[in-house]
User: Fold this.
Amino acid sequence: MNTRQRITTLLIIVASLAVAGTLTATAAKKSAKAAERAKAQQAAKAKVARGQYLVTIGGCNDCHTPFKMGPNGPEPDMSRALSGHPQDFPMPAPPKMTDGKWNWAGAATNTAFAGPWGVSYARNLTPERLTGIGIWDEKMFIKTIRTGRHWGVGRPILPPMPWFNYAKATDEDLSAIYAYLRTLKPIKNEVPEPIIAPPPPVKTASK
Assistant:
């Protein structure tokens, strides 16, 4: 083998090592990215699971999922999970409660409520864009819970929604709840607007 052949052979070996090194580095990068994706997916699944747990123990289905009559009495109709007061279940005027012993009433679906505040309806929490919270971002959702105001800036959230308790949750927990709600089946269900009672008359001092 002459000098030119030896140089050529050496160059081929160096080139082969360079290609092998590049392929190894590329494979390592792909493996690292795949590991990062798997880790992110696992974290997302854990976040949704945390949100589902909080929604369950927080009793959200008790008001936001319509009740139906089951074999042992009223129970949430999970085929309409968290879709709010059914649009096909219009409510009559609430009963009169004037004796002071009864001061609020609830619908058979447990999604409509009447009391001194007026008439309130449990909202549609599914990610349906027109009738649910599909257009809400996480910031708006958290602000709504923190302030007790619809969309975070609108009308007050009415009883019996215990927003003042949920407002004490951490940002991480509220973010997890939002993440879980985004995984629900979107249900088109237009909940009626609340009927807000007028403020009580101002009492004037007697002369």
About this structure: The chain is about 40% helix and 10% strand.
